[in-house]
Specification:
Blueprint: H1 2-13, H2 19-36, H3 41-55, H4 58-71, H5 76-88, H6 92-105, H7 110-122, H8 126-139, H9 144-156, H10 160-173
């Protein structure tokens, strides 16, 4: 059920399934997993994501993050997803700190490290965002989300030629 919840919330996040279908099902699967065993960190994180992305239930997201790190204080994805929740709560500096913690805990995850790039982008720390995206692309040259985000960062910096090149690269990979 925890894995199902994770898959469903990702389908909703990436709009492969309408979020109005995916997130309630993800939430139900996460709650089912937790009813069977409340020590499953992955279920708490899937619920955290649904509460953040779909319900905007910030207190619930915080509760699920705390439950997750009580189980496993080194679970990088918990810090990653909680970082997004913190941005949703207009707590960007704390969100950045959570994303940095996630990156430190999982130094090779392209998803975690691209999330750190998002944090820099959202805080308009463009030089750090570019550097972070480039670190991801050094390890994973075909990681589509890093190319997409790098294109957005360059656009925010008004570097149109670079933005277009990255977005074209992302389109070619897609």
């Amino acid at each position: 059920y925890a894995t199902l919840a994770d898959c469903l919330q990702l389908q909703g996040f990436y709009d492969f399934v309408p979020p109005s279908d995916a997130y309630p099902r993800a939430k139900a699967a996460a709650q089912k997993a937790l009813s069977l065993d409340d020590s499953i960190g992955e279920a708490h994180v899937a619920l955290l994501s649904a509460l953040t992305d779909y319900d905007w239930d910030w207190k619930g997201a915080e509760r699920e993050f705390k439950a997750t790190i009580a189980i496993d204080p080194n679970y990088a994805v918990a810090y990653q997803y909680y970082g997004y929740a913190l941005f949703g709560m207009n707590r960007g500096d704390e969100g950045l700190a959570a994303m940095k913690q996630a990156a430190q805990l999982d130094p090779v995850s392209p998803s975690v490290h691209t999330s750190l790039c998002w944090a820099y982008y959202l805080l308009r720390q463009n030089a750090q965002a570019v550097a972070q995206c480039n670190r991801v692309l050094e390890l994973y040259p075909d990681f589509l989300p890093a190319h997409q985000l790098l294109g957005l960062v360059y656009g925010q910096m008004r570097e149109d030629r670079r933005a277009k090149a990255e977005l074209n690269q992302a389109q070619a990979l897609e």
